[in-house]
Amino acid sequence: MNLNKLRDKAYQCAVAHGWHEEKNSNRHCLCLVISELMEAVEADRKGRKANVNRYHEIFKSYSPIIPKKIGFIFAYEQTIKGSVEEELADACIRIFDYAGVTEYDLDDFDYNESDTDDYSEMIFTEAMYNITNYIMGWDITVVLDEIFAFCRDRNIDIFWHIEQKMKYNELRPYKHGDKSY
C-alpha cells in the first residue's frame, strides 16, 4: 500500500472541502486524530460494527437506472456510517491529511517489519488509550502502525474502510455542510 498516495488524496480532499483555509497548529490536527479514536470508543460502546456483507448486498441490488453515487451513499450510510471501522478509518485519514500538510513521507517507514504492541489481550478502550499515548509522542508513523496492528488483531480490513470513507468524503458538501473543523 502506497501511503503517500493516500496522504495526497486525503490532503487534496480536505483542501477541496475547505478544511485548510486557515492554518491550524499541529496540536489541533493531532487532537482531531484523538477525537476520531474517541468516536471509535463511542461506536464500540454502542455495538456499532460495519456490516460489509450487507453493504455489498445493498450496493449490488441497486437498479442500473439509479446513479452509482446514490447507491454508494445509501449503502455506506446504512451499513458503515458511525461504525468502529469508519472511525478508525477517519483517524487514519486525519493522519494522512496531517502528513499532507506537513509534507511528511509516510512511505519511509516499514510498517510490516516494525515492532508493535500486542493488542490481543487489550479491551477496546485500553487499545485506544494505548494508541492515543503514541499520538503524544508526535510520531505519526508509529500511530499509523499501531492502528494497523490493532486492526490486524481484530480482523478489520482498515485499507478497505479507508478507501470507502475517502470515497464518501469526496461526495460530501463543502465543510460537510456546517462544521467548523
Description of the structure:
The two termini are 28 Å apart. The chain contains 8 helices and no strands. It has one domain (3-175). The longest helix is centred in the N-terminal third of the chain and has 20 residues, at 26-45. The chain is globular. It has 181 residues and is mostly helical.
Gyration radius, in Å: 16 Å
Approximately how much beta-strand content do the residues carry? under 5%
Distance between the termini: 28 Å
Helix content: 55-70%
Nearest-integer average pLDDT: 91
Number of domains: 1
Counting H and I runs of at least 4 residues, what is the number of helices? 8
Shape: globular
| Estimated structural class | mainly alpha
Point out poorly predicted stretches. Answer: none
**Number of E strands:** 0
What's the helix-strand series? HHHHHHHH
Give a quick account of the main beta sheet: strands, pairing sense, barrel closure: none
Give a nutshell description of this structure.
It contains eight helices and no strands. The protein has about 180 residues and is mainly α.
Q: Any descriptors?
A:
single chain, 181 residues, 8 helices
What is the topology?
Elements: H1 3-16, H2 26-45, H3 52-61, H4 68-79, H5 84-102, H6 124-135, H7 140-153, H8 158-171
